[in-house]
Amino acid sequence: MSIIKISSKDNTFIKHINKLIKSAKYRRENHEFVAEGLRICYDACISGAVIKAVVFTKTAYEKHRGALDEIISVSEKQYEVSDVVFSSICDTQSPQGVLCVTKTLDKRTLFDKMEYSGKFLALDNIQDPSNLGTILRTAEAVGVSAVILSKDCCDIYSPKVVRGSMGAVFRLVYIIVDTIEGFLSEHKGINSFAAVVDNGAKPINSVRFSSPCIVCVGNEGNGLKESTVDACGECITIPMKGRAESLNASVAASIIMWEMLK
């Protein structure tokens, strides 16, 4: 093992990391993404993700030597960078001086091996990375079998999504599909529910979510696409009191998952 030291922000690899952080297209083209922070990097390590490179400062290594040694032992390349260089590639306000460049995760095989007898969440055009990260974190916590994302959702490998998921992105089974309605048409044996803001829909606390089932949650501003609603077997809603007209997408998804899994 040979640790490469970098002291220039103009280094080619440093530029590569910056592009991975900033561009979803670049992440897709290179099949790589960035995970920043000791806990997230350690989650990648123990979850069996392919770590293409680990980048750390001398200060971070001295402070977190035990955990970093484990990460280093499974990474393909290792880089020690100066504090100035790390500050040029970090995406957080209080950097810990540790990040990993990780190969994008192919969950398709895991998903295909699942027997469709569980409880699933479908996300239709979710756009806020913070919302998506929180939803993934909650999905893992409550025990959702898998998450299905439409391809027009924000990038699941966005640094904000990876960080907000608190490592769930490495452990949770998920797939990305062209459209949610297309997925539903291919899996007609799954009871499907559209989460809507509609007084005529069935209150979620009166619904019996028997397996297999899937609940679809839509875009923050516009909700579910009409075609997705039409593809679902039933519409459900979260009853609200007072003058509230809607809920934040991650809050709504969390309530729905809790009701579905309780």
Folded structure, characterized:
The protein has 262 residues and is of the alpha/beta class. It folds into 2 domains: 3-103, 60s Ribosomal Protein L30, Chain: A (2-Layer Sandwich); 108-261, 3-Layer(aba) Sandwich (Alpha/beta knot), CATH 3.40.1280.10. The protein has 13 helices and 12 strands. It has helices spanning 12-22, 24-30, 38-46, 58-63, 65-74, 83-89, 108-113, 129-142, 159-164, 168-171, 180-186, 226-231, 249-261; strands at residues 3-6, 32-36, 51-57, 77-81, 98-103, 119-123, 146-150, 174-177, 191-195, 202-203, 213-217, 234-237. It has a 7-stranded parallel beta sheet with strand order 8-7-6-11-9-12-10. The chain has a 5-stranded mixed beta sheet with strand order 1-4-3-5-2, with helices on both faces. Helix 8 links the parallel strand 6 and strand 7. Helix 1 (12-22) crosses helix 2, helix 3 (38-46) crosses helix 5 and helix 8 packs parallel to helix 13. It starts with a strand and ends with a helix. The mean pLDDT is 92.
What is the strand and helix layout of this fold?
Elements: E1 3-6, H1 12-22, H2 24-30, E2 32-36, H3 38-46, E3 51-57, H4 58-63, H5 65-74, E4 77-81, H6 83-89, E5 98-103, H7 108-113, E6 119-123, H8 129-142, E7 146-150, H9 159-164, H10 168-171, E8 174-177, H11 180-186, E9 191-195, E10 202-203, E11 213-217, H12 226-231, E12 234-237, H13 249-261
Parallel strand pairs: 1-4, 3-4, 6-7, 6-11, 7-8, 9-11, 9-12, 10-12
Antiparallel strand pairs: 2-5, 3-5
